[in-house]
Amino acid sequence: MNPIFSALPTTIFETMSRLAREHQAVNLGQGFPDDPGPEDVRRKAAQAVIEGWNQYPPMMGLPELRQATATHFRHWQGLELDPEAEVMITSGATEAIAGALMAIVSPGDEVVLFEPMYDAYLPLVRRAGGIPKFVTLTPPHFGLSEEALAKAFSPKTRVVLFNNPLNPTATNFSEADLDLLASFCVRHDAVAICDDVWEHVVFDGHRHQPLMSRPGMRERTVKISSAGKIFSLTGWKVGMVMAAPKLMRVLAKAHQYITFTTPPNLQAAVAYGLGKADGYFEGMRADFQRSRDRFAGGLSDLGFSVLPSAGTYFLNVDIAPLGQSDDVAFCQRLVAEHGVAAIPVSAFYAEGAVRNVVRFCFAKHDATLDKALERLAALRVRA
Question: What domain of life (predicted)?
Answer without folding.
Answer: Bacteria
